[in-house]
Each structure stands twice: as C-alpha cells, then as structure tokens.
C-alpha cells in the first residue's frame, strides 16, 4: 500500500472510471442546428479527444475522413461545431472519443440541417433602350428564379426608352447551393402584316441576348450566392443587374433577396 500526499490512501487502478476500452461515451446530442452547421455535445467518463465522421449515407460513413476538433486538450465535456454542410439535408454522423491511452469508442447519430429558402423579388425594371428607332417598344418580360418561372409576365407591353416597369414579382425558392435569377426583355418588331408565326412572338423564354428580323432581346442575370454561416437572415439584400453591353435591348433591374432557414 502506498500513501498519497495528504495522507489519503490511493485506491487500485481498477477502481477508476470506465475508460474507452468500454463504453466511455455517456451522452452525445445535437443542438443549434442551422443550415450549414450544428453543435455536437459529447460527454465521456474519462478525458478524451473527439472527432466526427459525417455522410448522407450510413453505408459509407466509416470511409469518410474523421474531422478532428481543434479544442486541443483532452476533456470529459466537448462542445464541437460540425460545419460545411448542405442545407435541407439529412446526415448520419459518428462521434469518436479517444482516451489518453489511444482507445476509441464511437456512437452513431442522425441530424437534418435546416432548409434554406430564398425569396427573390424583382421590384423595378428601367428600360434604357427599347431597341426601336421611333416610338415605344413592344416589350415582353420573362422572369425566372431558380426553377420558378413567369413567362410573359408582361406581353407586348408598350414601353419606351426611359420607361419603368414595376413587376413587384416575388418568388420563394429552395436554394441549398448558388442559383440564378433572370429577367429577359423581348421587343417585338413583327407587325404581322403577313401573319404572325409562332416563332415571331418569342413567347418561349430563351434567357439570352439576340437580334432577329422579328425583334431584339436581352437577359440580365443575378447569382443568388451559395449558403454560408453568415447569411444575412431575414434582411432584404438589394441587388441590381443589367444585360451584357452587347444586348440590343438595354435595361436595369432592381430587386432584392431575403434568406431564411426553416426546420
Ligand atoms: Ca426593336
Ligand atoms: Ca418593336
């Protein structure tokens, strides 16, 4: 028997807490789940270092690299941020705890990130050049955000250079990655003296820029950014866009996007 400093009797090593040769993880739970990250709280019986593997598929979870948490010192309490996830996605994860003798235990959990909803709003279109040498243009407007489209939101609408349209068009799209919004203006130059063919109406959006005998058109596009942890949630984020300078129809679009995350 040895006597420890202070006069206490030291117990045998086997009386210590369960190490990671047995089940040393007493609890683990997710919290603060957002679009691209969540917090993982892990408690262990003995001081450990933690890491996590994460995958959308249980079958390949073990083949994923272990993300080591940088907190450094071994501890019985871990509060770790798991990052760089895709919004609106379900993941399996495996938390690994390694004790100071290098023994590892793991547990498997499941988490679903919040869905990222972006509201794209097209407020105002200022026509700078309607592409007609005299009189107003005969303008059709196609609007698109992600996969959501309003073809011919305006159709054969009389508006000249300097004219303003206020579509006040607003659509919500799921945007787990970067996506695009488009505004295409087409000016009709076909007076239909010989009858209007279907190709002359440009009723099918093309989202490009061009010139033909029956009219001229141009497209402005805006890239809704990819998600990030610092997304300006619920604050309208103004943007403006114009078609390329080569476009025969010139205009400026003012709009905004608003980002929100929903469970
Ligand atoms: Ca024209
Ligand atoms: Ca015209």
Task: Look at the helices and sheets and give the structural class.
Answer: mainly beta
Q: What is the third-level CATH name, the topology of the largest domain?
A: Immunoglobulin-like
Total of helices: 0
Mean pLDDT: 90
Overall CATH architecture of the largest domain: Sandwich
How many β-strands, per DSSP?
Answer: 16
Describe, in plain words, how this protein is organized in 3D.
This protein has strands at residues 25-31, 38-55, 67-68, 75-82, 90-99, 104-112, 115-129, 137-145, 148-159, 164-165, 169-174, 179-188, 210-212, 215-224, 237-241, 250-262. It is mainly beta. The protein has 2 domains: 19-113, Immunoglobulins (Immunoglobulin-like, Sandwich), CATH 2.60.40; 116-262, Immunoglobulin-like. The strands form 3 sheets. Strands 1, 2, 3, 4, 5 and 6 form a 6-stranded antiparallel sheet that branches. Strands 7, 10, 11, 15 and 16 form a 5-stranded antiparallel sheet that branches. A hairpin with an 8-residue loop joins strand 15 (237-241) and strand 16 (250-262). The two termini are 59 Å apart. This is Fibronectin type-III domain-containing protein.
Keywords:
single chain; 263 residues; mainly beta; Immunoglobulin-like; 2 domains; 16 strands; 0% helix; 53% strand; binds calcium ion
What are the SSEs and their pairings?
Elements: E1 25-31, E2 38-55, E3 67-68, E4 75-82, E5 90-99, E6 104-112, E7 115-129, E8 137-145, E9 148-159, E10 164-165, E11 169-174, E12 179-188, E13 210-212, E14 215-224, E15 237-241, E16 250-262
Antiparallel strand pairs: 1-2, 2-3, 2-4, 2-5, 5-6, 7-10, 7-11, 7-16, 8-9, 8-12, 12-14, 13-14, 15-16
One calcium ion (CA) is lined by residues 132, 137-138, 187-189.
């Amino acid at each position: 028997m040895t006597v420890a400093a202070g006069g206490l009797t030291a117990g045998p090593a086997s009386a210590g807490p369960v190490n990671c040769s047995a089940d040393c993880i007493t609890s683990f739970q997710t919290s603060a789940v957002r679009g691209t990250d969540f917090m993982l709280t892990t408690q262990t019986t003995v001081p450990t270092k933690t890491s996590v593997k994460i995958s959308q598929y249980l079958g390949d979870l073990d083949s994923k690299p272990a993300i080591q948490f940088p907190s450094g010192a071994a501890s019985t309490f871990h509060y770790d941020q798991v990052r760089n996830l895709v919004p609106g996605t379900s993941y399996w994860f495996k938390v690994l705890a390694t004790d100071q003798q290098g023994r590892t235990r793991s547990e498997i959990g499941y988490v679903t990130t919040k869905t990222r909803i972006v509201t794209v709003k097209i407020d105002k279109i200022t026509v700078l050049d309607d592409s007609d040498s005299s009189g107003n243009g005969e303008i059709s407007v196609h609007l698109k955000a992600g996969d959501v489209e309003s073809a011919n939101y305006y159709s054969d609408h009389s508006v000249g250079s300097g004219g303003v349209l206020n579509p006040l068009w607003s659509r919500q799209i799921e945007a787990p990655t970067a996506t695009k919004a488009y505004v295409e203006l087409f000016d009709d130059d076909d007076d239909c003296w010989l009858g209007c063919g279907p190709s002359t109406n440009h009723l099918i959006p093309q989202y490009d820029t061009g010139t033909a005998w029956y009219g001229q058109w141009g497209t402005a596009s805006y890239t809704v950014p990819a998600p990030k942890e610092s997304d300006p949630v619920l604050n309208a984020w103004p943007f403006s866009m114009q078609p390329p300078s080569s476009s025969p129809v010139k205009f400026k679009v003012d709009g905004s996007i608003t980002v929100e995350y929903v469970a």
